[in-house]
Design a protein that fits this description.
This protein is α+β, with helices and mostly antiparallel strands. It contains three helices and five strands, in the order ββββαβαα. It has a domain of about 100 residues: Double Stranded RNA Binding Domain. About 35% of the residues lie in helices and about 15% in strands. The radius of gyration is 28 Å and the shape is elongated.
């Protein structure tokens, strides 16, 4: 049997075998159905041991995931927005893919620039105007 692959980016693909899903009872409203059917999904993905993720992507993913990633490098996502298992399952997978996609794009390096001469002049002119305005607010002297 061929395992299904999830395409994250052109370079990153995940095997569905890497995802572990558990269905749990969803909190919140849902009528009598909420106490009988486990519709919420808890998706677990071992990012630290995934062959599809490079060290740089894993490091950025650790920052993005925050408290959703355990110390062992496992991402845990809970999805209970919808009332059906399939929609919650798709929602959890979509959120994981989006998180990995965001981590896959490296941050842009900031280039140091200097303000232009015109910008410096405009800044100084506005400061001078503001200072003059404040000087005019002083107490009125006695003109006898």
């Amino acid at each position: 049997m061929k395992q299904a692959m999830i395409q994250v980016t052109n370079n990153i693909t995940l095997s569905e075998d890497e995802l572990e899903e558990r269905f749990i009872r969803a909190p919140g409203p849902g009528g009598q159905n909420v106490n009988k059917v486990a519709t919420a999904v808890q998706l677990r993905f071992d990012a630290a041991n995934s062959p599809g993720l490079s060290a740089g992507v894993l490091q950025r993913l650790r920052l993005l995931a925050g408290s959703r990633m355990t110390r062992a490098g496992i991402i845990v996502l809970n999805a209970s927005r919808f009332r059906s298992q399939e929609r919650n399952r798709a929602d959890a997978q979509a959120r994981l893919v989006e998180m990995i996609r965001e981590a896959a794009t490296p941050p842009k390096r900031r280039r140091a620039t200097k303000p232009s001469l015109g910008a410096k002049r405009r800044r100084m002119d506005s400061k001078t105007k503001r200072g003059n305005l404040k000087k005019m607010r002083g107490s009125v002297g006695s003109h006898d």
